[in-house]
Q: What sequence folds into this?
């Protein structure tokens, strides 16, 4: 599926295409679920904490860290979640265990996060047409760099920005201004943004005047009102087949 949502928007060859990472280049939920389950097994073996207690306490620690940090990169930090998790259970400063749980989480996550079909082909195609490609993603740089390295995309992009660099998650416009800066472009250039989240990717990219494309996964909804993307698509082959005429 590839659909024009904003009837006023026409496509022209872009100077750069910016991509979100999580849930745009790969499917987030199954990887996250497998990772949380692996930690659950480890916590049971190491600390004798049962599933129900693990799930409730993890949910509480996540909530507390998110409240403490607001919309920042470290509000998604599994290390902080597991540190707080251990504190709530009364283990005090069990730093090695917190690090171990974090490693278990991300190792399992990455092993269960295949790129969506067509991503590599699309990136190669854009590069072959001399279109710059970049990443703007929430979360801390260390894990996002590790993810892209795991995908073998460590040297693929012309610019890479995480919300850790400016201290605030998308839709904060500074993420998008920073990537333009790194690319040597301005708002006057023709920029495309590809992301799954209308509340962060679509509205954020509009602050630099980008043409926006929402990647729709499964039954996710297309953004409406001020969150409406210019285009929506469900897979990268359809995306590439539909943009090819505007680029060649
Ligand atoms: Mg995303």
A:
């Amino acid at each position: 599926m590839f659909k024009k949502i904003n009837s006023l928007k026409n496509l022209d060859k872009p100077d750069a295409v910016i991509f979100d990472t999580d849930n745009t280049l790969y499917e987030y939920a199954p990887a996250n679920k497998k990772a949380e389950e692996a930690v659950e097994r480890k916590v049971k073996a190491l600390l004798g904490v049962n599933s129900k207690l693990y799930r409730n306490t993890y949910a509480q620690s996540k909530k507390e860290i998110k409240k403490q940090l607001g919309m920042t990169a470290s509000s998604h930090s599994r290390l902080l979640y597991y540190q707080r998790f251990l504190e709530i259970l009364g283990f005090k400063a069990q730093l090695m265990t917190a690090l171990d749980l974090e490693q278990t989480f991300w190792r399992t996550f990455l092993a269960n996060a295949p790129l969506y079909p067509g991503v590599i082909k699309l990136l190669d195609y854009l590069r072959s047409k001399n279109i710059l490609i970049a990443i703007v993603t929430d979360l801390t740089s260390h894990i996002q760099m590790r993810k892209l390295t795991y995908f073998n995309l460590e040297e693929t992009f012309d610019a890479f920005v995480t919300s850790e660099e400016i201290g605030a998650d998308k839709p904060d416009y500074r993420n998008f201004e920073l990537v333009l800066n790194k690319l040597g472009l301005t708002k006057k250039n023709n920029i495309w943004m590809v992301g799954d989240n209308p509340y962060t990717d679509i509205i954020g990219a509009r602050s630099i005047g980008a043409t926006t494309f929402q990647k729709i996964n499964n039954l996710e909804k297309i953004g409406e009102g001020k969150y409406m993307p210019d285009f929506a698509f469900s897979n990268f082959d359809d995306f590439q087949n539909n943009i090819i005429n505007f680029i060649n």
